[in-house]
Amino acid sequence: MVRSMATRHREDTVVEAKKAKVKSPPMFKVLLLNDDYTPMDFVVVVLQKFFSIGREKATQIMLKVHREGAGVCGVYPRDVAATKVEQVIAFARQHQHPLRCVMEAN
Ligand code: TYC
Asked: pLDDT tens, 35-52?
């Protein structure tokens, strides 16, 4: 995205400043990985609780992970994605589940 900038100097002279290039931040996918032990219902709860996904959509994503091995939960700036990964892993370990959650550049 490019936004024009103009700066007013002495009297009414308008100096055109260098164009401000407003880059969106690099984005990262957060993915859940399949395993043989984490209960399906628990994965649906994780998707609802940490990714604000409704029950039906959460169930679809969980089944995709179960069948295909991995699935995207959401796409976020780096620090948000890293926090989601840590929160999901901490929550899963509290409940003694081996659920894996990773981030990757989008
Ligand atoms: N494969 C698990 C089971 O059969 C369910 C599962 C789905 C586990 C998604 C992890 O990220 C996952 N209970």
From this structure: 999 999 999 999 999 999
Residue length of the chain: 106
Mutate to test the pocket of ligand 1, among 32, 33, 35 (most ligand atoms within 8 A of CB): 35
Atom of ligand 1 nearest to the CA of 40: 5
Give the CA count within 13 Å in the CB-facing half-sphere of 67: 6
Please give the model's pTM, rounded to 2 decimal places. 0.84
Closest atom of ligand 1 to CA, residue 71: 11
**Amino acid identity, residue 5?**
M
| Nearest-atom index, ligand 1, CA of 33 | 11
C-alpha–C-alpha distance, residues 37 and 11, integer Å: 73
pLDDT 10s digits, 48-102: 999 999 999 999 999 999 999 999 999 999 999 999 999 999 999 999 999 999 9
Identify the helix (H) or strand (E) that includes residue 28: strand 27-33
